[in-house]
Structures are given as structure tokens and as C-alpha cells.
Amino acid sequence: MKKSNPNPVVQTAKTGIEISIIKEFCKGCGICVEFCPKDVLALGSDLKTNCINIEACNGDALCELRCPDFAIFVKNPKKKAIKK
Amino acid sequence: MKKSNPNPVVQTAKTGIEISIIKEFCKGCGICVEFCPKDVLALGSDLKTNCINIEACNGDALCELRCPDFAIFVKNPKKKAIKK
Amino acid sequence: MNQRSELLSGNEATALAAIKGGVRFFGGYPITPSTEIAEIMALELPKLGGVFIQMEDEIASICAIIGASAAGMKSMTATSGPGFSLMQEGIGYAIMTEVPTVIVNVQRGGPATGLPTKVAQGDVMAARWGTHGDHPAVVLSPWSVLESFTLTVKAIEISERLRMPIILLSDEIVGHMREVVSLPDSVSVYERKKPTKSPDEYLHYADDTNYDSPIASFGEGYRIHISGLTHRKDGFPTNDPKTIAWKMDRLRNKIDQNRDWLHYSEQFDLDAETIIISYGSSARTSLEAKYEYEKKSGKKIGFLRLITLWPFHYKKLTELLKNAKRVVVVEMNQGQMIREISRAVPRGIDVTGVNRVDGELITPEEVLAAL
Amino acid sequence: MNQRSELLSGNEATALAAIKGGVRFFGGYPITPSTEIAEIMALELPKLGGVFIQMEDEIASICAIIGASAAGMKSMTATSGPGFSLMQEGIGYAIMTEVPTVIVNVQRGGPATGLPTKVAQGDVMAARWGTHGDHPAVVLSPWSVLESFTLTVKAIEISERLRMPIILLSDEIVGHMREVVSLPDSVSVYERKKPTKSPDEYLHYADDTNYDSPIASFGEGYRIHISGLTHRKDGFPTNDPKTIAWKMDRLRNKIDQNRDWLHYSEQFDLDAETIIISYGSSARTSLEAKYEYEKKSGKKIGFLRLITLWPFHYKKLTELLKNAKRVVVVEMNQGQMIREISRAVPRGIDVTGVNRVDGELITPEEVLAAL
Amino acid sequence: MNIEIAEYLRLDDRFPHILCPGCGIGSAMNAMVRAISESSMNKNEICVVSGIGCSSRVPGYIDCDTFHTLHGRAIPSATGIKLARPEMEVIVIAGDGDLLAIGGNHFIHAARRNLDLTVILINNFNYGMTGGQFSPTTPQGKRGTTAPYGSVERDFNVCEMAKVAGAVFVARSTTYHTPHLKGLIKQAMKKKGFAVIEVVSQCPTLYGRLNRMGDAIKMLEYYRDNSITVTQVKEPKDAEGKIVIGVLWETEAPEYSEVYKKVIDIAQKK
Amino acid sequence: MNIEIAEYLRLDDRFPHILCPGCGIGSAMNAMVRAISESSMNKNEICVVSGIGCSSRVPGYIDCDTFHTLHGRAIPSATGIKLARPEMEVIVIAGDGDLLAIGGNHFIHAARRNLDLTVILINNFNYGMTGGQFSPTTPQGKRGTTAPYGSVERDFNVCEMAKVAGAVFVARSTTYHTPHLKGLIKQAMKKKGFAVIEVVSQCPTLYGRLNRMGDAIKMLEYYRDNSITVTQVKEPKDAEGKIVIGVLWETEAPEYSEVYKKVIDIAQKK
Amino acid sequence: MRKEIRLAGTGGQGLLKAGEILAEAAGVYENKKVIQTQSYGPEARGGASKTDIIISDEEILYPKARQVDVICCLSQKSVDAFLKDLKDTGIVIVDSFYVKRCNAKNVFPLPLSTETRQKFGRELFMNIVLLGALAEITKIVTVDSLRNALANRVPPATIETNLKALDLGVFIAQIKD
Amino acid sequence: MRKEIRLAGTGGQGLLKAGEILAEAAGVYENKKVIQTQSYGPEARGGASKTDIIISDEEILYPKARQVDVICCLSQKSVDAFLKDLKDTGIVIVDSFYVKRCNAKNVFPLPLSTETRQKFGRELFMNIVLLGALAEITKIVTVDSLRNALANRVPPATIETNLKALDLGVFIAQIKD
Ligand SMILES: Cc1ncc(C[n+]2csc(CCOP(=O)(O)OP(=O)(O)O)c2C)c(N)n1
Ligand SMILES: Cc1ncc(C[n+]2csc(CCOP(=O)(O)OP(=O)(O)O)c2C)c(N)n1
Ligand code: SF4
Ligand code: SF4
Ligand code: SF4
Ligand code: SF4
Fold it and tell me: What is the pLDDT at residue H45?
């Protein structure tokens, strides 16, 4: 029953931090934008979240954890190891 | 729909205390007998409670209050006034 | 602007009818597609000093409205399939204890959670037979916004006159559809007769008549006993076979002796060879199909719309259908009323069902295809 | 002493059959006259490592047995009228989600609390139509202690093969009556087929066949989704009319395609002019009446006992009754199966009901009076 | 009959009642009737409501409006009555199975709403009417016919639950302490709001027999010897293994029908 | 997709999910999925069970065995699963209406039995799915479509009730505090016995709008600014008007299926 | 051979259990066809209680007694209610303590309860005492079969006392003779 | 005269409310026969939502649109799903932001959402903006009737803004012309 394969828009910072946004899933609630401590994100004219300042991202992935729609994911190479 | 008129067996003590027993209702559980502090009552050969020592009755009416079957009633002329 | 004409949905009309019909107690639990009824009651009842209470579930709801009615207040609840199933025990209790009340079931697709926002007419049999044990049932089915109003008023009246719960079996289309209607300012309200006998002589289930009888309510000094155990005329439980038989007959007679005036239907052109029978929202499609067919073919088609679904009046139907050569039963279920209708027509007559159970309103084309 | 013969009640036989038939989960709530079934399960299941749980009510009971069955354990509950009404929503859920399970309803007098300790057969229609929405139903009715055993085993098997809840409709007489029976040491147990497809290919509601299909259970790695919303083959909800229609047809086909093998009845002397039809405990009276009548009059009487009440096999019945001049339907309700039977016999044939609804077993004299 | 409480009883044809010899429900009913009598209430303004069970048979014997509803449904049924006729005193009397098993949800929701009901919960630790199955108050380890190996479930602390759910008056007594119980019922009836009295009772026929607790007298002796009044409890351990009787919790909170009147006021002003 | 939690989601054709923009249920689901992922559990041994409601749609998105039962019946359905397959981790996720209104009784009874379930109660203070009616957790005075004049009913204190009924682990978090929430869910899953997590969530579409609380962001800001961790509460008044988050109650008690095993032992010995 | 036996009294007197034992004695230990039904008051207890046992060489269909051969009554109420089904040739065994009036041809008033109380301190085993007397008077089953059946149907710890009760019943009936 | 109008989009866009206002305008203020039905996703929200309004001089029986004169779509999904019922001569009004593809003869792509956001900061009044445009383009009802109907059907405090939204819709449609 595999039907769709969500296709994220990916940006990578010099720090190695990577932000993927699945536009198809994002409903533009703005939660990730509002509560990002580094103002990395903004709602675009497409009413979806956009990564406007990837270099500022501190990789805490709060946006990822709060997003109600599984539309944004942060990969932080430094954190990786600790997680599991 | 009045059908039966329970007919109590009544005994009156010199003190004026009156014990009425409705044999028809009594199921012989013995609660009144057991917990009477003055041993006024006893189960008879009819397997119902009987007043065997009315003069000892102190009129506290515990039997009346505990009887699960509304089968025994105590009238204590002294208490009457206080009650209501 | 029309005099007092307004755009209302069927659910809104039902709620307003309840209020005009004297309902002052509504206990309910939200469920699509009936919720608007509760919402309007919540808004309107307090304005009249009435009581709206949202109970913790449908079981509590039906019990609360039974309690309120036993205490003398006209009462109602509204629900849909899953809630209706949950109410079955309570409905049986109201039947057994002969407490008037109205239960609105705005049908959606079933079974189970099914199709919460889609239409169906799948609860016709559950409305008749849902609760356990032999029991009477009166079920009315509106097809329009206006009739959502008038039948609600009717249901209240019948419930009081027969002392039993009446089911208003609406459906998602009728409940949510909006039409312009002019509602009467007031309706004639049947008031429960008070007993004239003294409490000593009063019997809560005296059966001089089987309807319009005086009923004492809680709080009126009659000190009645109401019990869901099979009971005597005075309401107290019995195990005596004769008395049990009396009670069961009494319940059955509510239908047997009142079948005639409980029967509502609308019909025309019954002298045609083919007759379409339908009810509720699918009757709208059916009538449309009749007209379209007649326009195209020039041939008449009979139309019979059942308003009272239960009790089913077999004799009356037999009479109404006596000229029919063919009967087409249109309903949005797998064939429920067709079971009864088949029994009312002579054996040779072809009885065809046009059914749809996919959540969509049956279309005139589908009916036409069967004509 | 007979080889392994023992004195058992119908309820005891049902409980023992459940255990022999593989039921390892019983969730229930006590209610007269079914409680002995729960009591025996409480005693016996732990001995086999099975689970007995007394839930907080009947709604919880039916949900628990559905959950257990979805997790792969054969499950059962037992109740009577009021509890049966409460279970209606859950029964519909099991039908919709196609979870096998067995519900025993030991009938007592209704409606409502009614006659807790007295017999009736008033839940025949509620067993067919109690839950809302169109749905299939299989209802079996035992008449003896031995049959309480065999039909329980059968019910378990059918529930697994058709993937649906099956209702064993017993009654107070059959449930409480004691007879001497010799039960088999073991019975053949139908084991749910495991899927052979990989989880990626597996569809929980694939309909290559409508019965005996492989079913995945929770915990087997198939990561299935079970929902009471109308769903697709993969179990996920849908609003698509075509898919909805598919699902509804699928449910209906459980009956339509299996009516033949689901039909059980017992009959003799059907070439007689008058045929008595009955079921459950009133069939015992009926057969007794047949013999007494024949002894007295020398004339044969036909006898037909329905074991499967639902689905009702109209064609089969028409065939069985083809020589009948007169049919007498004996049941302890106000006339429930007679509704179906009337439809199966040709119009001219006289169909008479012998009914009793006062809590007492119908007597041979009453049946004789109608012959 | 020349008995003070006779006017509150349906003495003419309902007695003797159907309860077993020595059943505590009778004593609880006795205390209740006396409480009513002593409150000098007009019996035409009282409605006694029950569910199904032995305890729920009580209303049938009381000479006021009485409502024998479905199993577990006494409270929602009483809710309808109380809101339809707020002037009536509505008393619910039912068993632990009725009020806490099948009826548990209604119990906590009515408490939450703080509807003015007096609920007399007869706790005999089992389902009497259906023959002695264990109930939500059966102590762990005790037997019921559906717990032949002893119940593995923990029991509810009814009084704590009533309190947390929102009851404004919570008390406990036993069928041994009938004068005490009578007093509590009087207090509960006076209280505006949801008032609960747990009556620790005996079912000698089933629970008592299944758990070898002796006859009714033995069970009452146990209650006598193992109860402690709430005022006697100085520290938690005083209460260990004891039945704590008395008023366990009392507070003030706006009663539901009164609060509802405010809704009417707002609605009518708009 | 190259996302850690992807394997726990039915990403292929179930997303985007049906919840409204900014709905807190999504965040709660997010935390739950991460908790599962981080517990390194085999997804074939997890069953997520729900009732009916917006919150109850969650299981449909999780790639393990999932059970979308009837309204209010998640817990009894889960009971059947857990007892049939004690080795499975059974998680219940549902709304305040589902678990506390129609399902309230199952909630307290499962807690009493101490069945090993993890119950995630998404409290959005109203019935979302049916359009914003008030619920048993709606604070007094707040509006719902069936409380157009403000609700007159008091709300349940879910956590206290869970505790009194018998839960062995009771915690609270909000959809603002998702990392915190994730941690609590992990703890709850590990805990043997009945574990409850109340998730204070936002329904911006209905409750938020009806009560003029602003959009999802405003509601989350409120949760951020008005929450206090349980360890920060030094005296009762610290908690006044605050949402207390953290583990509110934890204790040890024998879990139901373990106790039931003892019954089996006894029975088999006999 | 076909015999219909009815045991009637009040709930709690153990008549159902007695009926079971009788049915098992006849059905399992004497290879007869047997059927036992019961009828009792609201829900599980209180009020009148009765059980019918039919013992026959042939299949039994209608399970209730209609032409009763033996009625045993342990309460006055049950005498009043159930005697009407007695055969002309039927016999009635009543407890002489609880039953004061009994209008039938062949009545055996036996001091069952009195003797039971005397011997066992309470009436708990009166149902078994009755069985002993019934067997002795009617010979419908042998006392041996009753003994066997009893052993299956009472708690192991009480078998001995129950057997004594059975003997007491036989004894009471013999004296009566 | 008989007109079938369909408003379609996503739950939450207020299309039902718009349909009500349209139906009331035609039915109450222009004395037409009118019927409105609706169809929406699971339970009360999410997914596709549509409402059909039929306006006619004659009694309307079958209440759903079958030969639609005007379809207004505020989402791509609704275009894909509902266009099939459009009459040959029918017109389609779509929001140019949300709808990218629309395969029909008479399509009016209007910047409804963009303009609404611009004017009111959010899309809350887009449904009313749509009504204005619809009236202007189709003349099915007068804007005055809409004004009257609107006043009954939106919260008093929002009437003014709603009226402005109506005007905005008319304006957008005029520009389009
Ligand atoms: C819906 C329903 N389920 C079950 C029953 C059977 N039933 C009758 S009373 C009862 C329990 C009685 O226990 P409790 O409430 O504790 O009262 P008690 O008899 O002990 O006083 C049950 C389960 C019923 N009548 N209705
Ligand atoms: C028996 C039954 N009654 C009512 C409903 C209608 N219904 C569906 S969801 C719901 C309440 C949802 O509220 P909640 O559980 O708080 O979840 P939310 O939607 O807020 O997440 C109701 C009343 C139903 N589906 N079934
Ligand atoms: S939180 Fe998620 S849904 Fe909301 S704007 Fe950000 S990415 Fe989109
Ligand atoms: S307490 Fe009542 S029933 Fe018991 S013996 Fe005394 S009078 Fe009789
Ligand atoms: S069974 Fe128990 S609770 Fe019921 S009447 Fe007898 S002693 Fe009382
Ligand atoms: S209605 Fe409320 S709870 Fe439901 S999805 Fe929308 S925001 Fe969430």
C-alpha cells in the first residue's frame, strides 16, 4: 500500500546541521517558527515553514519535537551519538 | 391496596416501656437478641424473637434500630418527648 | 420577506419543535450528525427556565430524561447510531415503566462507528427491535425540515398519550439540510392528565383506557413506585403469570389498539401499476424520480411515503397497494422496510428494492433505473 | 455407571464446551440466568492458564473479549437481556471489524429488568437487529443440555470461520435445566489461519474468500489497523462510496454466501398436513405435544425445530414446508420467528402462533389446543 | 399500626421484605427511614431511587415516591428527577456493585457536578442479588463465586474517590452502628450538594458464608470490634485495619441546580 | 525517508494527518513516537489503542498494531489485548471526553486493577471531534458549544482521580513541553502497572476560538508561562493557578496480570 | 417407569442442591433418563423456590412436572402454591414444623427441621435429611445411589456430615412407618 | 429558474456558513425555493468539505446538486473531486492561490485568499469574500440580499467586517471582469 513518498526540502549548515522540511505535511501553524530560539524559520508565502537562516540553527531540534505534523526534522551530527 | 395489617405481640413493663414484636416480619436472625445489653430477648421455638424479660428493658431501643426486618418496636414513655 | 419564514436545518427545526411542543428537559451527549439539536437546546432551554444537561454518556442521558419525565417534565434526547445502540436498555426501561419521552436518532452510516458524517437509513430495524424482550415501538420518519418540526411535535404528543418513548428517526440529510420554512408561533401541546383519584385509590397502571390516561408524576403526592421489573397495576413487581400476561398484553395493546391513528403516510397516484414506496430523505429522491419518469414516459407512477415506520400497518398497506402490479421500495440500507412491505402485498406482486449503502444519498437515476 | 455420563445444566455444558472449544478468555459481568457460565469459567480457565476477568459492566466485557480475540485468543462472554442490550454497540463493532467472538444470551423475561428468573424467548429479534446499521447476524438456539454443548462449539467455529460475533441464544429453561449427558473428551477445534503473506502484502480485509480466511492478530508482526469506522481492505477509514459499498457487501455476503451451511434444523414427518415449528425450550414442549397428539388421534403431525434462527433460510424453509397445509409456530414471545416463517410459506397457508409471555414454559396442552 | 415510622413504610402489603434473615440492608433501611421520619419531612416530597440489586429493593418498602431503575442507573435517573423537581429530596440507595461497578461513572460525574443528592451506598462487599460474585469493594484475597481462588483485584476506596470526584459530604458507618448511621443520613440529607454515606453492611448468605465469616451476628460483632470513629484517629496508624466511621470529609461548594439557575439568569437577560 | 522515527510512522499513505493546523494532539503524538523510538522497542510488540475523537485518530498514524475502538472503550479493549498478550506494550491514547466522560468508569476500574497500560490522556478541555462541546475537564465558566453561557460544571482533577483509583504512575505535561512529555512517556512505558500521563493540549480550532484564547501559538505561550514543575512547588500556593507538570505520583503495587498468574498457580495446583 | 418429584420450600433451604443429587442418583447411578428444572423468586433468592425432577425410562421432552408423584414441601407457602399439580395417587412429604396445613390424601408430615436442628445445631443439612426420607418412603432411588451422587456434589469436607444427614432422613421416615 | 451552486474546499474555510448565507439570501430575501446540503469529512472536520445550494422557482425534492451551474473551489482537492458534476455551460470560480490546475471551460481564478489575507491579516473572512465575488459574477442573488442574510448569520460584533469582506469580493470580481 505504499503510495506517497514524502519528499523533504533539505538544507545543510556549515555546522553539519541539516534541516528537512516536508512541505506536503506542513500546515503552517507557525509553532516551529515562533518557538525557535534562533529565528531560523519563517512562514513563507506558501504558508508553510521555511528555513531562512540555517546557519543560526543550534540543533536543539525543538521545532522537530513540537511540530504537530511531522513536517520538520533536524539532524545534528553532534547529538546523534547521545540520543539512542 | 391495603391487604395485611401486621399484628404485633405487645408486652408492657412496669416502667411503661412497651415492646411490640411483629412475628410475621421477624426472620429470626437473632441480632436483636445478641446485642440487647439487658438480655430482654430470646429466640423462641418458633425461631422468632420473643420478649422474655420485659422488666429488664432499659428502653434504649437498640433492637428496634438494628432489626433488619422492622419486626420489633420499643416504646419508651420517657424518651418520647426528646425524639422529635 | 416572507412572514416569519426562516432558513433552518432539520435538526434546528427538531430542536425548536421540541421547545414549542413543551419539552423542558434535554439530556444528551454529542454525536454527529445530531449534535446541533443539543447545541440549540443548550442555548434556548435556559431562556425558558428549562433544563439542558450534557450527561457523561448516552446511557446517562436516556436515564436522566426518563427520570425527568417521571417527575412530570416533558423530556427529550437526540443521538445517532452508536449512541442509539447504547440507549437500548434505557429505551426498554421507558417502555416497561411507561414513561413518555422522545428519542431522536439522526441516522448515519453504520454498523459501529461507521460513517459519522454520511447518510444512511440503517437503523429502521434497530429502532423497532433494538431493546431486548417483546415490546411496542412507535417510530416516525421526517423527510423535510418542516416535517422535522411537525413530527417532533407529534412524537411528543404520542409519547404522552401512549405513555411510551417515541423515536424520531431522522437521517443525516434531513437533519443537516436547510430549507426555508414558516413555523407556527405556537403548537397545540398535549398536557399529561393528572389523576383525579385519591392516592389511596390511584393505580399507576390502571388500564381502563390504554391511552390518554391520567398519570401521576413524582412529587405530586401519589407516592408511586416505578420499577423495570414486570409489575402489577400498582407498579410493584410480580411473579404471578396472570399478572405478567396482563402487563405484556397491555404493552402490546398500545400498538394493536392504536395502529390506525398512529399510521401516517402520504400517497398519490396509487392507481398506477408501479408504486414507489420510500421514507425519509430517500423519499425525496423517489418523488423526484416519479416526476422525471412521468415527464419522460407520460405514464403515471404511484408514490407512497411512509411517515410512521412503526407500527407498520399491514392492513392499511395492503389496501393502499391493492391495485399495484409492481412495488419498488427505495431505502438507504440493505433492505429493511422492504421486509414488511413484502408481507403486505399479495404474493405474486414483484417487490423490488432500490438500495444504497455507501453513504451517499440515493439518486433519482438509480430509482429511474428500477422503474 | 454410564461411561463419563454426568448431570449438567445447560449453562454448565456451555461453559465446558467453550473451554473444550478453545476459548481461553472470558470477560463478563454477572446476570441471572447466565451467571453460572461466568462462575464456571472463573473456576476452570485458570486451570488451563486461560483468563477469566469480571469486568465492570457488560460494555467493558464485550470490548475486552473483542480485544482479546483481536490479539489472537478465542474469547466469549455470557449475559442476559439487559446486559445484551448494553452490548449492542460492541456487537456492532465486532461485526464491523470482523473480530470473531461468542456471545451467549440466556434469555429471561423482558423488556427492561423484566423477569430475572423466568423464561422467555423475547430476544430473537434483538439478536438479529439490535445493533444499529445494516449488519449480518448468526444466532443459534439450543434446546437441550447436550446441544448447549455442541452449539457452543459450533458457535466458536462459525465465529472464527466467518470472522464475526456469533450469538448463542439460550433461555432460562435450557440454561438451568439439568440432564445426564456424555460429553466428548475433546472436540475438533477450528484454528484461525495465520496469514502466509508478508506484512507488506497482507491486507486485513482481503476478500478472496469470505470465510476461512487467514487473519493476523495483534502481536504477530503484521501491524494491522482495526477500526470501527467503515474501512478499506487495509483497515484504514474511507469515505469513498465505492469502498464503502464494497465493505457493506462484504459484510452482507457473510450471510448471503453461507446461508446453506449455516442452516441447522431438525425435522420429521414434514409430509403431515400440520407442522409445528419451534426452537429452544419451547421446542421440547412442541415435540411432546406432537407425540401426545399422535397417540390420541392416530394422525401424524410434522415437527420442525430451528437450530439456526439467523440467518433465516427462507428458501430452505419454503422447501421443507412445501406440503404443509397448516403451520403452528410455538414460541415464548409475542410472535417473533413467526414473522419470518409467514414469509417462507405460501400465502394461503394458515400460520398460527402459540405464544406465551408470562414467564412460564409453554405447556403441551397449549400446543395441543392449537392443533 | 401504632409505630412512629409506620407512615414512611408500605407496611400494608410489602412486608415481610424479600431480604435474607440477618441481612444488613434491612438495618440500613431501618436507619434511613428513621432519619427521614426524624427530619419531619413531608413524605410527598421525597423520592427514593435505586438501581438493581438486593440493596436496590429498598425503595419498594418506603412510602414515598420510589424509583427502581436499571442496574447501575440510579444516579442518572435521580439526576433527571432532581433537576425536574429541585424542591424534592432525592435519596439514592443502592449496592456497591450498582453504584461502583456498572454505575461507577455516574457516581463520579454526579459528584463532580455536585448535584444535591443523598447517596446511601450499601457496601456488602459482593453482588448479593446475583449470588455472591466479587465486586469492586471486595478486599483482595476474599472469595466470591467468580473469584473461587480469592479476588486478585484491589478494592476501591469509595470515600476517597467520592471526595476527589467532588462530593461535599462523605461519611461512613456500619450496620452495627445504626444510631450513628441514622445521624449521618440526617446530616447528609440536610447538606446541599452531593453527599455520600458508605454503609458497611453484611451479606451473611453469600459473602459471609463464602468467606467463612459466620452469621450476621458474627459479622456485626466484627464491625463492632473493628470500627474506630474518625475523631479517635489521631495518627494514620490508628486507622490501620480498622473501619473508620463518621464524617470523613465535608466542604462547601455551589450545588448544581443552584449554579444552573445562574445560567437561566444569564440566558434570560440576553 | 531518512528520519529516525520514520519507521514508527505510517508515512507512506496516511500523512498529512487529519488534525487541524496547530493542534496539540500532533505534538503529543510526536512525543509519543519519539518515546517509543528511544525505548528501542520492537514495533511488532506494541499495540496503540484509542477510542473515538480527534485524539483517538493517533493510532492510525503509528506503524505498529493499532486499535481504533469505540468511543470511550479504549481501556476495556486494551484490557483484552494486554491479558491475551501480556508480552505486548499496550498504550492507550485518547481524549478527555473519551477517557473521562463516556469512558470514565473503565478508567477508574483499570486503575484499580493496576493493569499494565500506559494511558496518554490528551486533555484539550473539550470534545474536538464533534465540534467543541464542553467536557468533564472544561474549567467552570469556559464555553463550549453546549455551554454557550459558560460551563457550570466543575472539572475533574484527572491526576488526583487516577491516583485515588489506583494508578501507580501519574504525570502531567503540556504540548509546549514536548521533550519533557517524551521523557514522561518513556518512564510510563517502563513502569509496570497502570500509568497515566495527562497531556495539557490545545484545540485552537474550537476550544481556543470559543474562549478567545488566540491561536495555537498563543495557547502554547500560555502553557509555557503558566506551568510549574512539581519540584518547583514548595508549598501549595506555588501551584495556584498553575499547571503543575512532572511526575505527580508514583508508587509500587503488584500489576494485574502478575497477580493473575498467581491465580493460575493456585488453580493448577488444586 | 416415569416419576415426577417436586421439592419446594424457601430460597436458601438447599432444595436445588437436593434436586441435583436426586437427579444425579437416578440419572448417573441408576441409568435412568432424568431432567431437573427449577423455579425461584426474583433474581437469585428469597421467596418460594421449587425444583422438579422427572425420572423416566424414556426420553423426557417437556421438562416440568405436570402429574406429580411426590411433592416435598418445607414451607407452608409451597404447600399452598404447588399441591395442585399432585396426581390423585401422589404423596406429599412435609416438614411438620414449617407446614401446618396440608390438604391431600397421602401426607407424610415428618419432623425434618426439628430433628435436623437437634442433631446438627442448625437446619443446614435439612435438604439432605429430606432426601433420605424421600428415598426411604418412595424407593424412587436407592439410598446408595444418593450416597454416590452426594459425594460428587457437596464440598469434600462436608461429605461425612451429609451422609449422616441422609441416614437421619431414612431413620425419620422409618420411624414414621 | 433553477440554479445549482456548489461551494467546496477544506473544513474550516467557512464554506458551510457561506452556503447558509447564500441560501438565506435567495430563500428568505428573494422568496425563492432553496435547499442547502453539505458533505464533509470524518466526524466534524478535516479534509474536503462541500455544500450544495439549489435555488429554484419550484419545489426542490432531490436536494443534492446534479447539474451544477456554479462551482466555487477553495482547494485543489475540491477541484479534482467535484468538477465532474459541472454543467457544460457551468462556470467555476477558484481561488488562484490554492488552486493551480482546473480543467473546465469557464474558469474564474480569483485572488480571494491573497486579497483576504492582505486586507484582514488572515483568511478568516475568505468565505464571505467568495460570496461577494459569486454574486457579482453570477447575479444569482443580489448583494443586498446577501447583506441582509449575513446580518442574521454572523456574530453581531463581526457584521461590519463581514460586510467589508462582501464588498471586497464584489471588487475582486469586478477587477477580474
Ligand atoms: C445490565 C445488568 N447487568 C447485570 C444485572 C444483574 N445484576 C443484578 S443485581 C447485580 C449486582 C448486585 O450487587 P450490588 O449492587 O452490590 O447489590 P447487592 O445485591 O449486593 O445489594 C447484578 C450484576 C442486571 N440486572 N442488569
Ligand atoms: C457512543 C458514541 N457517542 C458519541 C460519539 C460522538 N463523539 C465522537 S468523538 C466524541 C468526543 C471527542 O472528545 P475527546 O474524547 O475529548 O477527543 P478530542 O476530539 O477532543 O480529541 C464524541 C462525543 C460517538 N462516536 N460514539
Ligand atoms: S510546526 Fe510543523 S506544521 Fe507547524 S509550521 Fe512548523 S513545520 Fe509546519
Ligand atoms: S433483629 Fe428483627 S428479624 Fe432479627 S430476630 Fe430480632 S426481631 Fe427478628
Ligand atoms: S443475598 Fe446478601 S445482600 Fe442479598 S438479601 Fe441476602 S444477605 Fe442481603
Ligand atoms: S478540532 Fe481541535 S482537537 Fe480536533 S484536530 Fe482540530 S484542533 Fe485538534
Answer: 58
Facing residue for F112 by CB, picked from E149, E156, E166:
E156
Give the mean pLDDT of chain F.
96
**CATH 3.40.50.920 placement within chain C:** 266-370
Query: Cell 409489575 belongs to which residue?
Result: C231
Can you give the CATH number for the domain in which G106 is found? 3.40.920.10
Structural domain total, chain H: 1
CATH class of the region D3-184: alpha beta
The answer to whether residues F158 and F121 touch, using CB atoms and an 8 Å cutoff, is yes
Entry pTM: 0.97
Chains G and H touch (3+ CB pairs under 8 A): no
Q: Give the domain CATH number at F139.
A: 3.40.50.970
Best CA proximity match to C258, nearest among C305, C209, C306:
C209
User: What value of ipTM does the predicted structure carry?
Assistant: 0.97
CATH of domain C266-370: 3.40.50.920
Q: Answer yes or no: is H170 within a domain.
A: no
Is any atom of ligand 4 closer than 6 Å to the C-beta of B80? no
Confidence of residue A84 (pLDDT cuts 50, 70, 90): very low
C348 pLDDT band, cuts 50/70/90, is confident
3-class secondary structure, C158 = helix
Who lines ligand 3 at CB under 6 A?
A 26-32, 49, 67, 69, 71-72
Q: What is the 3-state secondary structure (H, E, C) of chain E?
A: CCCHHHHHECHHHHCCCCCCCCCHHHHHHHHHHHHHHHCCCCHHHEEEEECCCCHHHHHHHECCEEEECCCCCHHHHHHHHHHHCCCCEEEEEEEHHHHHHHCHHHHHHHHHHCCCCEEEEEECCEECCCCCEECCCCCCCCCECCECCCCCCCCCCHHHHHHHHCCCEEEEEECCCHHHHHHHHHHHHHCCCCEEEEEECCCHHHHHHHCCCCCHHHHHHHHHHCEEEHHHCCCHHHHCCCEEEEEEEECCCCCHHHHHHHHHHHHHHC
Is the Cβ pair D42, E146 closer than 8 Å? yes
How many percent of chain A have pLDDT more than 90?
79
Distance CA E130, CA G17 (A): 17
3-state secondary structure of D216: coil
- Establish if E149 touches chain F: CB-CB under 8 angstroms: yes
Kindly give the distance from the C-alpha atom of residue H78 to the centroid of ligand 6, in angstroms, as a whole number: 21
| Local structure of residue G44 (DSSP, 8 states) | T
User: Is pLDDT of G46 > 80?
Assistant: no
Q: Which of C35, C116, C179 sits opposite H35 (nearest CB)?
A: C179
What confidence tens digit (pLDDT) does each residue in F196-210 have? Answer: 999 999 999 999 999
Domains of chain A (ranges, CATH numbers): 9-75 (3.30.70.20)
CB atoms within 10 A of CB D47: 16
The count of domains in chain F is: 1
pLDDT bracket for residue H176 (50, 70, 90): low
Per the listing, cell 467535484 goes with: H82
| pLDDT, average across residues D234-239 | 95
How many Å lie between the alpha carbon of C33 and the closest alpha carbon of chain D?
15
Determine if ligand 6 sits within 6 Å of the CB of residue F204. Answer: yes
- Please tell me the distance from the alpha carbon of residue C350 to that of residue E87, in angstroms, as a whole number: 61
Q: Where in chain D is the domain with CATH 3.40.50.970?
A: 3-184
Question: Has residue H78 been placed in a domain?
Answer: yes
Q: Which of G41, G43, G45 sits opposite E205 (nearest CB)?
A: G45
Which residues constitute the domain of residue F176? 3-269
pLDDT < 50 positions in chain B: 1-3, 81-84
Task: With a cut of 50, list the residues of chain F below it in pLDDT.
Answer: none
Residue showing cell 425420572: G55
- Locate all alpha helices (DSSP H) within F130-255, ordered by sequence: 158-165, 178-190, 209-210, 216-225
**Ligand 3 centre and the CA of A63: distance in Å?**
8
